[in-house]
Each structure stands twice: as C-alpha cells, then as structure tokens.
Amino acid sequence: MTKFNEALVNRDTAGRFDTKMQSEPELTLGTGERTGADVVYERLSGRTCENLFPRGLTETRRAVKNLRGEPDGKIRTVTLTWDSVPPAHRGDPLEVAGPKDGRPLIIDVHSGCPDMAITSGNVVLMGGGSGYGITVKEGAHLELLASAHDKFSVTAESGSRVDFYAEEGVRGYQHIKDGAHFTLHGQSSRLTLSTDLRG
What we know:
Layout: E1 2-5, E2 26-29, H1 36-44, E3 49-52, H2 57-63, E4 75-80, E5 94-97, E6 104-109, E7 116-120, E8 122-126, E9 132-136, E10 141-146, E11 152-156, E12 161-166, E13 172-176, E14 181-186, E15 191-193
Parallel strand pairs: 2-14, 3-4, 4-6, 5-7, 6-8, 7-9, 8-10, 9-11, 10-12, 11-13, 12-14, 13-15
Antiparallel strand pairs: 1-2
C-alpha cells in the first residue's frame, strides 16, 4: 500500500513548502486484496438480519437511523428503491447513523437516491446507479461498495474514515479533507480524488 503525506507536497507556486496547522488527509491505495463482496460476507457471517424495505420519505428516514441497533444482535439491512424516496425529492440529505455498539448498518440502493450524510457509526453502502453525493462526518466510518456502472461523489470530512471498494468503471469525484482517512481498494480510471497519487 502507498501512503500519501500532504505535508510533503509543494503548496506554493514560488517553489517553497508552506506549513499547515491542520492534519493532512491520509490516503491509502489498496491492492484490491479484499472486494466489496468480501466486506458484506464478513459483516453478515453468522448474523441474523432485520431486512427493511421502507416506503415513503418518513419511513426511509427512520430506517436509515439505527443508533440503538436491532435487538438480539441482529444486523439491519435497508433496501432503497423509488418507493423509498420519491424521484422528485430535492430536500435535505438523508441522515444515516449506524448503531452505537459498532454493528454495521447495511444500505442497498436499488434505484434512485438523494444525497446522504453519514453522521455516525459503521455504514456499509452499496448501489450507486445514476449517482448521488455522500458526506461522511467526523467519527463515522463508511464502507462503500461500488460496481462498474455506479457514480458516487464522496466528501470525507476531518476525522472520518472511508473504505471505497471500486470496480473498474465506477466514476465520481472524491473530496478528501484534511484529517480524513480514505482507503481506495481496487481502482478505476474514472475516479477523481482531490488528493490523487496517480496524477
């Protein structure tokens, strides 16, 4: 794996290195050793799931907030379709929160989706379709499973952690802020990283 240290990058056109007070983002390019399918298998292995198929925005907002977690150690999985969020919805992003005890919340987007804000917990997200924006807040961890035709625009805020499992062909702009930890597993020539080692 390759580590990127932004503090070593020339940030001034006059050719000198300027100091910064913020901590640099940590970007890791993986070698594709684990796939998105591996992640889902590991998270669900030996666990019982509580599968939700919300209809309408009110049900959907409730389904993607799972702070207390499901009883008996179950894992909540949420499947989102056009019935979950109306296509005409242009409101605030869906606020997504995984259980406080560290269990993952798994979200599978089958069709259509508004922007999301991952506010806390461990969230596994798959399915991008026509594309949407995801903001990962401080303290939250997102495992993003992207297939070849998906489009995602991720903003990893300071103190957040993102593991992006990318198949070739996935596209979108990934904004990695100072203090974020972003790991790209696999590769796609159509992904753009704000802190880019391939440039």
